[in-house]
Amino acid sequence: MTPVQFILVVIAALAFFYWLDALRAKELAHQAGKTRCLQDGVTFLDDSVVLRQTALRRGPRGRISLYRNYLFEFSSDGSTRYRGEIELLNKQVVSVTLEPFRITDYH
Fold first, then answer.
1. What gap in Å lies between CA 56 and CA 20, rounded to an integer?
2. For the chain, which residues make up each domain, given as ranges?
């Protein structure tokens, strides 16, 4: 194997592992958003989250960590869409924030 081929194999392997990590992070964000919506009694819409930002940030111990920010939509009344935001640092959910929404009471 030539040095160029070796470098290409290493780059391909790194890309593959990054892709797997991104899939796991998206699933974690999806579950966090769904759980938060369930806790607050709102509907998690479209059953999806969208990656908004990826960056390198310092974690609580000062180490460089991979930060990901995801957006999702939810509804409290079935007709109005609101936004939610999920922040991950490495494989840990840092926060799940819901936009202020109208609380409906159907009693």
1. 18
2. 3-98
| Run of H or E residues at 32 | helix 3-40
Q: Can you tell me the distance from the alpha carbon of 95 to that of 33, in angstroms, rounded to the nearest whole number?
A: 10
- The tokens of 93 are what? 């959910």
Radius of gyration of the chain (CA): 18
Q: How far is CA 82 from the centre of its chain?
A: 17
- Select from 40, 49, 47 the least CA-distant residue to 87: 49
Q: What is the DSSP letter of 102?
A: -
Which of residues 41 and 104 earns the better pLDDT score?
Answer: 41
What digits encode the pLDDT tens for the residues 38-95? 999 999 999 999 999 999 999 888 999 999 999 999 999 988 999 999 999 999 999 9
* Coil/strand/helix, residue 77: coil
Residues present in the chain in total: 107
